[in-house]
């Protein structure tokens, strides 16, 4: 009797303060979600290496001397027996060089079409370029000469003259995701235009394509894979509850938890990478797993006696499941917090954000 009276008193106190608790929770969620715009994605794959790593520190110091410069290349290749393609290579390289100069953040562009070649004409020094001097109409002689006599020309032409390259030096901060995407899209447009006009196979090489792939993979993990996980868990929860309304509530709690936790990460200035992009799925799974304990308790109680007061059953579920939930959450939080000891920053991010999510009320 005394236990029932204490439970009834506790229920009355919680019931009186439920509006205040609900308002406080919603207020916290709204404030947290407002931090989502501050959540960023990195294009720098070096984020996988700890900033305290001696080799990483020396590498960063070396690269910083060049003011965030990155080189990209456009490599054009013709089939060995495609003489028409080979004859058009000099024109292709010249046009690509001029187009590449207008790329965003371009500092300089170098190819055989503007690489200086000095001539002695009637005792006067005349400046030409390797393309005009050697390629008339094709460049096999220049290719053979490059392999034999000049290491300077090796990056620009193959020994058979069927492959030539244009290099553009870019200066931008690799942390600027918008800059990487802008350069990549403009470079792809350039390749598309040139490919339609000439028969050569053009490839886009350098660090920037890899950086763009890094961003693309991270965004895909956050959106596509997260959507697939929500659909899968929705089906599993629906099969478990056999109640569409409870399933929607459970999934809604999971999505709200994702938004609020990532919002707080945004306020904290957290940067996501391909590794830490799994955070939404982890948060969603933890929230759904925790809420299912309460929903199953309510569902079982209402199935046994449908006349019972749903509010009392719900608060009874909180009282009954509180200790097991705290034990589960505490042990999981301790495991997540241990990831801070890992040297790689993205895994530290996973541990810290997941721990924050589990310790929230």
Give an overview in words.
The chain has 361 residues and is of the alpha+beta class. The two termini are 31 Å apart. The strands form three sheets. A four-stranded antiparallel sheet has the order 3-6-2-7. The mean pLDDT is 76. It is built from twelve helices and eight strands. Helices cover 62% and strands 12% of the residues. The protein has helices spanning 2-16, 18-33, 54-64, 83-100, 130-134, 140-149, 177-197, 207-241, 244-267, 279-304, 310-337, 345-359, and strands spanning 40-41, 69-77, 106-110, 116-121, 124-129, 163-171, 201-206, 271-272.
List keywords for this structure.
361 residues, two-stranded parallel sheet, 12 helices
Quick structural gist:
The model has no long low-confidence stretch (mean pLDDT 76).
Q: Percent of residues in helical segments?
A: 55-70%
Distance between the amino and carboxyl termini? 31 Å
**Mean model confidence by pLDDT:** 76
- Outline the biggest β-sheet: 4 strands, antiparallel
Low-pLDDT parts are none
Which structural class do the helices and strands define? alpha+beta
> What is the topology, as strand order, of the major beta sheet?
3-6-2-7
Supply the number of helical segments: 12
Shape: elongated
Question: What is the helix/strand order?
Answer: HHEHEHEEEHHEHEHHEHHH
Strand content: 5-15%
Radius of gyration: 31 Å
Q: How many strands in all?
A: 8
Helices and strands, with pairings:
Blueprint: H1 2-16, H2 18-33, E1 40-41, H3 54-64, E2 69-77, H4 83-100, E3 106-110, E4 116-121, E5 124-129, H5 130-134, H6 140-149, E6 163-171, H7 177-197, E7 201-206, H8 207-241, H9 244-267, E8 271-272, H10 279-304, H11 310-337, H12 345-359
Parallel strand pairs: 1-8
Antiparallel strand pairs: 2-6, 2-7, 3-6, 4-5
